[in-house]
Amino acid sequence: MKKISTKIAAFASAAAITVTGLAASAPAVFNQPVDVSAVDTNNDDWLHAEGSRLYDMNGNEVWLTGANWFGLNCIEYSPHYLYAGDIDDMLQEVADRGINVIRFPISTELILSWMNGTPYQISAGGMQASYNPPVDMDDGNGGIIKAGTYGRINKDFVEADGKTLITSDRGFDIILDKCKKYGIKAFIDIHSPHADNSGHNYNLWYGKETADGTMVTTDIWIDTLVWIADKYKNNDTLIGYDLKNEPHGKGQEGVNAAKWDGSTDENNWAYAATKCADAILDVNPNALIFIEGVEQSMSGAMPGDYWGMPDRRDNSPYIGAWWGGNFRGAREYPITPEHGTSQIVYSPHDYGPSVYAQTWFNKDFTTQTLLDDYWYDTWAYINAEDIAPELIGEWGGHMDGKENQKWMELLRDYMIDNHINHTFWCLNTNSGDTGGLWAGFQYDINNGTKITWEEEKYELFEKSLWQTQETGKYIGLDHQISLGRNGLSLNEFYESYAGTEGSNLDGGTIVKDGKPVTTTPSEQTTTSQKPAETTTDVSSITSTTESASNGDIEVTLIGDANCDGRVTIADATAIIQHLGNHDEYALSEQGEKNADCYNPGDGITGKDANAIQMIEAKIITELPVIE
User: Any catalytic annotation for residue 592?
Assistant: First the structure.
């Protein structure tokens, strides 16, 4: 057993029911006090990684299956096609079609304008919005013209006059609120440093000027992401941050190209991403951090080869990949923030021959040849070897009835069979080299927005959406709000479907031990926890069979309050919930015995939950803690 140190004693003394976090040198497990009388439905949907999979706060596996909607990265400062349709109609259809998460490209420049208190106004070219008349009006003949009679499209995006567009920061708040309404989650992607409809062509996350002449530096890039992560740290609709879209550049470009190595050079993407991830996790330890790859890596072809040297026709010093697709460097230099890896998701981009005729398409390619020639060593090993979760941040393309369509089907099936998360590129029709899922729009004031979908493409994509195996109900990521009109909330799935028909995850899975997150308005405990980096290695925890308050019941695993055979942050949550409302969150007798891990014999207190947090933060390595 471990004798508690002065430092740990000070940490533990802050416990009781309010759990405020860890010592200053350790990552916070809870980022705000637990108040058992308060309800905050924005704090129960955070996700975390264990191995190559993503889980909710109760250890239920989830699958992110979504699409991209660009425009915030462009000079219109809003998602495109809001000039042709209403946000409610469009998100309702997105949810009804089973898309449970949207990746929103955005620019550092736009977030900087929000952070500086000078937010850009949404462009009239980017959004049609009106509410005319803005209030009920006298028609001059003794009658009333009802508000919105002549115009009511995107009405939440206009000022009180019914016609002046609001600022883009307020617009983003509305978009997140609407996503919440329809059961959709979101994350942002820094598509470029500057607001530019072609900004994705720029190599790096720094080195471009904004409209007012401000140079976007690495520090500004990090500061803006920290600012927005802090602003939305209690809004679990925005589940994470894709730090930079497609860092790229060819090796011979040297300092002007993104590389992945062990240096602290500014253009070393691995170093910059790790630094940025830690800064975000300082303010929101619950956020997922999506890390893309680079374009080229060193091949090791000849001794003395170095980044920046000229290419060779034969025996090249560089190995190429899609922009954002190359993770070969992550084998030797993985992303390992000081906060741990529980929030890290690697996010390659992958495309087919209609985007570019890569060498691995120069044959009658199959899943196996794609793995052998490109996928496995470039990115697929991360998932296959259980290193970390992956989310294919962009995939898609034109339906050509030939090679590109074949590639899309092969990648789709590989993601289904191997629990790989993904966001399809894209909803928009105006992506020149891929097209979109939407084909066109028609809006009228009486019937709203009619979206025409590219049905053949959607049919191909739809098979990769998370859904129940028999009834085909789409599964959302919000515990309480169902995904669209006919979909399921996460709780509904784990309560009524997971153990019977299951889902198409892993090509077909039935889960018998799902644990829904209970929300009762007067009783729900909100923890906004930072989940465990990994399941605690029980071999490193000292167990005991000392008798305490439970008679002859012996401890099976000290700290295992929920009796699942593991010691994780879920046990700390179970203890706090039990203390806050014993009737609603009762522990079993065995669970009570196991939970008493701080000064065993004194009963269950908040200090027991803190002890488990300290195990997760690696402040201590053994239980029980004896004062």
Answer: no
